Amino acid sequence: MKHLIGLATLLTLSFAAVISVAGQKRPVTIYIAGDSTAAKKLPEKRPETGWGEMLQQHFDEKKVFVDDRAQNGRSTKTFISEGRWQAIIDALQPDDVVLVEFGHNDESKEKGERYTPPDDFRANLMRFIVDVRAKKGTVVLMTPVARRKFDKDGKLVDTHGEYPDIVRSVAAKEKVPLIDMLKKTSALLTSYGPDRSRTLFLQLKPGENANYPNGIEDNTHSNPGGAEENAKLVVEGIREQKLYVRKYLKK
Fold this sequence. Notes:
Blueprint: H1 2-23, E1 28-34, E2 64-68, H2 76-81, H3 84-91, E3 97-101, H4 118-134, E4 138-142, H5 163-174, E5 178-179, H6 181-196, E6 201-204, E7 216-222, H7 224-240
Parallel strand pairs: 1-2, 1-3, 3-4, 4-5
Antiparallel strand pairs: 6-7
Helix pairs in contact: 4-5
């Protein structure tokens, strides 16, 4: 009898444990849909770093999981055609967040496989909004980060043409949260100036890094320090837009 009572107690406790685990709320997932400026990098590309890689450290990992799906060289066109967008939508749960940052490759007329004409770019952004809302998630549009390009007078030059304004207009029309990364990163680069801003980008002298034996002067992609600064601007935008996930940000 004692044996049966002990067995029943053990089964009850085991069942309770299963219920307890099952009842635990999953972390909110923040998906990142974007290009190389946000993407995770392969070891052979280091020290190149995407801002998406630096975002998780700003959140309580028990409450938020950052799933960086951004990929090098992608535009809204190729992110959709390769099934990357649909993979996010298939995984999306209510209350999850999708950060959408494109533009660098959409505007590349010389690269036809990536190029997304302005009207198509607008339509793709609209699709993103509709799809995320259908799954009861929160979509956040972001303008592309600034490239490091200064004129002879030391003034930062915008290289993105009409694409940032398309993002802004769609966000305003559809009442979607907007993090204006072009505005924020432009202010950052301006504050650093033409010379000091090099310290934020993938700028290496010959022989300085085994991955780049001939050196590199990349004015689009960040090093770890630049990626961290950009991630801080994303966090700033999350607070400014009063997204509910801001309550899970570390103090």
